[in-house]
């Protein structure tokens, strides 16, 4: 019986995630990663979404090991600073669960509109007051409650129960090395070489890959994880490209680092709006991995570095930049090749969606694998439709973040003149008349939920307070209003009590690293 051969071109985070995913789901297959160790990867620090935690759990990889070996820290969400040009911030949480999920509390009409959230839309500058993740993050606390586990396990996290979802930050270079070590221990073959030639059959399917060293490796299916090089999906198959650059003009990033003392470690990513874009600030052990994302048509690298030094100190150095075009391939699956990670497309670093998209794409491969086994275009088209919708949903959601009140530079004022995605046009029109509910948001986005849309939109002051007030009054009778007030009081009281029992982020990280 023939042994099935999967080949991953390129390593980095996307490559090793793909290899481990395939090893877990197809343990009978031969899996080979081809990538040159001389090709570096970006290592300015990286953030992910909770999808990554679920992935680690499925593959029996410990979150504690990411902390210990990859300079990992925890992430409750993202703090957006100065996006309206007034120094204020707002917090985008991951969904909280149970009694602290303010987006589903008192859902009277079945729409997902919470009376607590509506009250904050009417009476507050942001939703942070009613978002548990925001309160915890402000105090550098983790959403973990001690449990009664008395075991001697060195797994520190086993002694806690999670209150809602969380994600992580890590050093991207160290994570790739760690995942590689796990992969090799699970009998995934690593070839330290570069692909030089792609050999196909008469129908255009890839039969083998020839490397620079002259070796030939037969394959049944390829995952292109070669990053921005896009060696297979782009250079070989020349798949059609859909650009987002007319709407999202950021096209360059300048990474840099800032040291910290590992004491007051924020459990969140910070996105700081600047004159010509924004800076990511990601805490990992001993430092912040940062980067200024900007439109290089409006500002020079020298001006960007000067602005960085003005905000973060004169000693900041940035030895390199990288360019990108926001967009995605129309057909991330072509013949017997799927592009994963940066190879498939890239919006920009905002919201840490790249690894999330990779994991969703890999998950969609399993039910559609018959597209390769049977060479059936139905499954390939179904996969491509799903993956491109994930990219488009992310493009729409990222675009929303730029609809700010800032008018200090051409970068910010020009957004009102850029092509607005259809989904955002519908959303803004809906906001003129009401506060969009869960049913509407599901109709324009299958990936991002109520908590995401509401947190960003309220933070940017997109919602109409008068419409919210009318809706609030229309939903609640006098009796229900009293119920809501009582429930709100209980909600906030329980939140304050629970916050007092949560562990400090920096202290728990130190304990985990010593075990």
Short description:
The chain is an alpha+beta fold and 515 residues long. Helix content is 38%, strand content 20%.
Q: Count up the helices.
A: 18
Structural class by SSE content: alpha+beta
Tell me the β content: 15-25%
- Order of strands across the widest beta sheet? 6-5-17-18-19-16-20
Distance between the termini: 46 Å
Q: Helicity range of the residues?
A: 25-40%
The mean pLDDT is: 90
| Broad shape | globular
Number of strands: 24
Radius of gyration: 24 Å
User: How would a textbook summarize the main sheet?
Assistant: 7 strands, mixed
The unreliable regions are: none
Any chance you could write out the topology, listing elements then pairs?
Blueprint: E1 5-9, H1 12-25, E2 30-34, E3 46-47, H2 51-58, H3 63-69, E4 73-75, E5 77-81, E6 89-93, H4 115-123, H5 132-138, E7 144-146, E8 160-162, E9 167-170, H6 172-185, E10 189-191, E11 195-200, E12 206-211, E13 216-218, E14 221-224, H7 231-236, E15 241-243, E16 252-259, E17 269-273, E18 277-284, E19 287-294, H8 301-312, E20 322-323, E21 327-329, E22 333-334, E23 337-339, E24 345-346, H9 354-365, H10 370-373, H11 377-401, H12 410-413, H13 422-433, H14 438-444, H15 450-459, H16 465-475, H17 478-499, H18 505-514
Parallel strand pairs: 1-2, 1-14, 2-10, 5-17, 14-23
Antiparallel strand pairs: 3-9, 4-9, 5-6, 7-8, 11-12, 12-13, 15-21, 16-19, 16-20, 17-18, 18-19, 21-24, 22-23
Helix pairs in contact: 1-6, 1-9, 3-18, 4-16, 9-11
